[in-house]
Amino acid sequence: MRKSIALTLSTALCLGIALAGCAGPGGGETAGNTEGTGNTESVAVNPPGQLPITNEKTTLKVLVRGSASVEDFATNEFTKWLEEKTNVHIEWEIAPEKSAQEKLNLVLSGGDYPEVIMGFGVSPTQMMIYGSQGVFLPLNDLIDKYGVEIKKMFEANSFYRDLITAPDGNIYALPQVNECYHCMYQQRMWIHKPWLDKLGLDMPTTTDEFYEVLKAFKTRDPNGNGKADEIPLSGSIQAASSHLFSTQMLDSFLMNAFIYDHGDKKLYLEDGKVTVPYNKPEWKEGLKYLHKLYSEGLIDPQALTQDNNQLKELGENPDTVILGASSGHNMGSLTMLGSSSGRWLTYVAVPPLKGPNGFRTAAYHPYVVSNGQYIITNKAQNPEVAFRLADFLYNSPDTTLHWYAGREGVEWRYAEEGEIGINGKPAIWKQLTPWGGVQNVNWGQVGPNYRSNDFRLGEARNPDQPLEVILYNETKEKMEPYAMPIEKVMPPVFFNAEQATEIADLEKTILDHVKEMMARFITGDLDIDSNWDAYVQNLENMNLKRYLELYQEAYDVKFKK
User: Fold this and answer.
1) What is the largest CA-CA distance in the chain?
2) Which domains does the chain have, with CATH numbers?
3) What pTM was computed for the model?
């Protein structure tokens, strides 16, 4: 199983999978009769694939994770288009982006949750807990009976279904699958190229060279205003939830010059054994390097406290450029994509740096881009309607283009004869307006969806909208040659209900401690040499061993059959 996935991924490019929720039976042609779901209303559902979904207007209550790029889900142009096509009206409840996880925890624990939970990236741990309680409905029967578009995705890539299936055989949520080549290497560093050019500096290739570049940024006035206002390196700590790690954090790119620093939980494999980097000597050396940068004023102190929007404000400083470099998925992590200033086009990717011991790798993400995107709860009046709406979101390319880009003929159009895609093949579609910023024409990539590799790279090359071409080229030239070996990458796993309950507290305790101590060691609040052993002992006291055992058990069940 593991080998076949690796082989497929070497040719297919990137998959982003959402793993979520739990389930109840599919029901009949008339929605609302699912036993044990608490349904009180019935509505006739049209046959699979037929639109509208219902002949009479049907309302669906959805809790959605807010997005900084979406002005208003209720008045959004894609929402209007979706209702026109399906006859399903969505009654929205928006969870503020910064406190979304807290909001979800609150509504679930209090029992005041809606019919559908969308866009939260619900973890396998949480979905198994609430799945076993019957809060999240199983979707297997609904997929079998009503699935059309999602079955096409499964047929295109048979292992997707297996990857979203829990140990008990249930599918607890619908995924967002995004075969995005550049997303496979999302832990990147972006540097302001005009400053390198002005100061006559080459692109750094080692940690020592990067240090020298940051010193030059700080001391040689690269923005030319005569002020010592340059910030050589910054970042953000905002992640999907309070105890996970993000691509904008200081360690995300730089630690990969010392040891494998992979993803939001930092798990990786050594000879088939699940392990972590943050209790190893190489991690300590990486922290000492970051402390050196911090102690010499090369790291912005706010990088350890600020959120993503504050980082972007730094990158888009209105008077002059003051930010030299920051890690992140793309230039939009530190600037506004498509902004009139054009600032985003001045930042280029740094190739993975070689550390003092010769180690260098690009964190590789072939499995998960998005997690737990669409859950139907036992509050659903019409589970079939809720499922069929989600199934329609997998329709490609038409629904996908409206969901991803906006209005046909305004934000995008289908390709014309002779137009060439990013992959050099005949194009499928063309972006007409810049992607990014606050808008009200699409859902900002929130919710279930399938973007195949052909779709992603089938975007017509467009000098006026160069983002995807830039990311493709930067990834191909700088990141892929140093890809983390597939056998090192920790794949997505599920836990049974008992394991999920045990790991939930362990994970938060351990990762919160790692995050806190990383900040204290970097700033020098604690001396790393004299406090390292105590830090490692604290991890052991927090039962890191049991934490890794639980992941190992889940990995063995899924991938060592």
Assistant:
1) 73
2) 42-179+367-462 (3.40.190.10), 187-362+490-494 (3.40.190.10)
3) 0.80
